[in-house]
Amino acid sequence: MPILKKLIALFAACAALLLTATPASAEVDGKCGRYLCVLTAHHNRYVQDITVRTRDGLPGTLRAWWGPYQSPRVRAAGHRWVVNQEHKKAKLVCGGLERDGRTIEDGVCVRI
Question: Which residue segments constitute the domains of the chain, with CATH numbers given?
């Protein structure tokens, strides 16, 4: 019985890797502003993930949005949000940076 449980766990781990791997036809696009960069892995309007990182490597409050998707705010120098959604009318993947309660840069967007 323990061998069966190990095989099931191994199969589940492999399936999870396959589901989260970037498809072979996915594109990675990005755009940098003065203080932050926004990158996204996507296939047409299907967005797999959004990464926002500061250019200077210092932490701040990061967020990302794309169509109806609004990420939670994260305090870090860089963060990756797994989206795995498709919105046919959403053409821009965007990010923003706040530090000390002030908006440093907002609306750095990648056109997909």
Answer: 25-111 (2.60.40)
